[in-house]
Amino acid sequence: MRNLNLTIVAILLSSLSLMAFRQETSEFNKQLDAFLKKYVQEGKVDYKRLKNNFEDVNKLYKSLETVNIDGLSKNETKALYINAYNIIVIRQITEYFPLKSALDKNGFFDKVKHNVGGEMLTLDQIEKGKVIIPFQDPRVHFAFSCAAASCPELANFAYSADQLDEQLDERTSNSINNADFIKVKSNENLVQISKIFKWYERDFKMKADDALSYINQYRKNKIPENYNVDFYEYDWSLNIQ
């Protein structure tokens, strides 16, 4: 009987602990949401103002250290790592600002490590190892923002588990229907698309035969299948207001 009681107590403590961690993640999302609405407009970040208020972004960045990933649902985990990636990018750009591009800082994506839930990770490890490979959802490519003009537009809200599918659909549609992201040249029977579709071709082919077929799933005005497809040069200049 005593062992049974101890087991019940252990289960209750575990449940309370998990609830506390989820509340902590929820609080991070709430703070991030307010931060993005304050500093992001039409996908562009007010780095100049943020540089003078560095603690606003650094506080969010530091709070990632104490987030507990264990026990989170798939959507909670996916949303957390997307949010973590985006705030880390903004924090790094702000720290090194002024600079013209993330590529101006050596190892920005693949060498500098960050503490997320007690695990030291590069941005590439978060993007590929924590989201792209385990979840195999090509929509996430439109949620990550690498601080470049050619990146999918950075959302001014935090991703949350209970709205994640709707948010990812919205961001995917937002990019694919953006004339600067998908450049249709009807007079040439040509469509110029982001190199994201080239770099991550395997991901998009999980959901469609090719890049154009995937794009047309979200296009309001479908692109004719006989159009030639080309990739425009990626613009790594900063997504600054």
| Strand order of the biggest β-sheet | 5-6-7
Strand content: 5-15%
Number of strands: 7
- Extract low-pLDDT stretches: 9-23
Which key features would you list for this structure?
3-stranded mixed sheet; 241 residues; single chain; 7 strands
List the helices and strands and how they pair.
Blueprint: H1 2-39, E1 40-41, E2 44-45, H2 47-51, H3 54-63, H4 74-96, E3 114-116, E4 119-121, H5 123-135, H6 164-176, E5 183-185, E6 190-193, H7 196-199, H8 201-204, H9 211-218, E7 228-231
Parallel strand pairs: 6-7
Antiparallel strand pairs: 1-2, 3-4, 5-6
Helix pairs in contact: 1-3, 3-4, 4-5
Brief overview:
The chain has helices spanning 2-39, 47-51, 54-63, 74-96, 123-135, 164-176, 196-199, 201-204, 211-218, and strands at 40-41, 44-45, 114-116, 119-121, 183-185, 190-193, 228-231.
